[in-house]
Design goal:
The protein is of the alpha/beta class and 335 residues long. The protein has two domains: 2-115 and 298-334, 2-Layer Sandwich (Nucleotidyltransferase, domain 5), CATH 3.30.420.40; 127-296, Nucleotidyltransferase, domain 5, CATH 3.30.420.40. It is built from ten helices and ten strands. The strands form two sheets. A five-stranded mixed beta sheet has the order 3-2-1-4-5, with helices on both faces. A five-stranded mixed beta sheet has the order 8-7-6-9-10, with helices on both faces. Helix 2 runs parallel beside helix 3 (84-101) and helix 5 (161-171) packs antiparallel against helix 8 (233-259). The longest helix is centred in the C-terminal third of the chain and has 27 residues, at 233-259. The radius of gyration is 20 Å and the shape is globular. It starts with a strand and ends in a 20-residue tail after the last helix.
Length: 335
């Protein structure tokens, strides 16, 4: 069964066709990074306009490469969460295409899509399992009870991990987006040179907080500049990366261990970080937990992950009418 997936929640326009939730037949993506770099971050109105310009051509290409629209069973689209203007572009395009082609319309939660990227990478992966979702806007630990039922057991109380990386990179002068640049810089630094805070909540062992470590980095660099004291940017990047990835690893592995399912899945844009991947591999090996890592190419926003999750939503009967709306925020438990 072929499902067309459309993703436009932020600054990537992406359309893909996936067969049976596991095999990519086409995967087209247009990134807007070059545009938003000029402003140091994503500008919602500009993102929405860029989606409008790109989505039709990407869809035509993806459909053609997958064998034509007549071979596609349903149209899946991200309808939450994300930038509302950007979401509306993809969703309205999907509704129009579904209506004109007489295909079912399937709404997909963006974070479920990130988890589903692992179904493509690992054809043997089946629920239940524990998932760590770490991206620019979200940091969650969830129990995936079945393909469409999720339970949140931990989440960030303030900044997401990816957001913290971007803000720390900005104060280091690395520009936007900062995640990959921070990773490269950290490879030449000493993670023990500086002690940045790692937050734990006694009443909520699986919750995160990254605003403190972000502020600590900003204050550290500002103090060094104000006192005209030299500092090592690689050491700052390495220590910051160790603090963030260390907490993500510790809490995710603890959650997987406590769940008893013996499987941990990594998902989201921060999932491409080599320090996080290595840390999870080492910790899971010690605890006897089976770890599933997505292909790095599927960690960022893409249409394939939406098509994959859309397949399972469709099998579960979760289709929508043409009055489907987009939502800037929505709990993964309610999708």
């Amino acid at each position: 069964m072929k499902i067309l997936g459309i993703e436009s929640s932020c600054d990537e326009t992406a359309v893909s066709v996936v067969e049976d939730g596991r095999k990519i037949l086409s995967n087209t993506i247009l990134s807007q990074i070059d545009i938003h770099q000029l402003y140091g971050g994503v500008v919602p109105e500009i993102a929405a306009r860029a989606h409008c310009e790109a989505i039709s051509g990407l869809a035509k290409k993806a459909i053609r490469e997958a064998g034509g629209l007549e071979t596609i069973e349903a149209i899946a689209v991200t309808n939450a969460p994300g930038l509302i203007g950007a979401l509306l572009v993809g969703m309205n395009f999907a509704k129009s295409l579904a209506f004109s082609a007489g295909k079912p319309l399937v709404p997909v939660h963006h974070l479920k899509g990130h988890v589903a990227a692992n179904y493509i990478t690992h054809p043997d992966l089946t629920p239940p399992f524990t998932a760590l979702i770490a991206s620019g806007g979200h940091s969650h630990i969830v129990e995936v009870l079945d393909y469409t039922t999720y339970k949140i057991i931990g989440h960030t109380r303030d900044d997401a991990a990816g957001e913290a990386f971007d803000k720390a990179a900005r104060v280091l002068g690395l520009g936007y987006p900062g995640g990959a640049k921070m990773e490269e810089l950290a490879k030449t630094g000493d993670p023990t040179a500086i002690s940045f805070p790692k937050v734990h909540f006694p009443d909520s062992p699986y919750d995160f907080s990254f605003s403190g470590v972000k502020t600590a980095v900003i204050n550290y660099i500002h103090t060094k500049k104000q006192t005209q004291t030299a500092y090592s940017a690689p050491d700052v990047a390495a220590a910051f990366t160790e603090a963030v990835c260390g907490v993500l690893t510790e809490k995710a592995v603890l959650a997987a261990e406590m769940s008893g399912c013996g499987k941990l899945v990594l998902a989201g844009g921060v999932g491409a970080n080599s320090f996080l991947r290595e840390g999870l591999e080492n910790a899971c090996r010690q605890k006897g937990i089976r770890l599933y890592l997505p292909q790095k190419a599927l960690c960022g926003d893409n249409g394939a992950m939406i098509a994959s999750q859309g397949y399972y939503e469709y099998l579960a009967g979760k289709t929508a009418g043409y009055d489907l709306n987009a939502y800037a925020t929505m709990s993964i438990e309610n999708a």
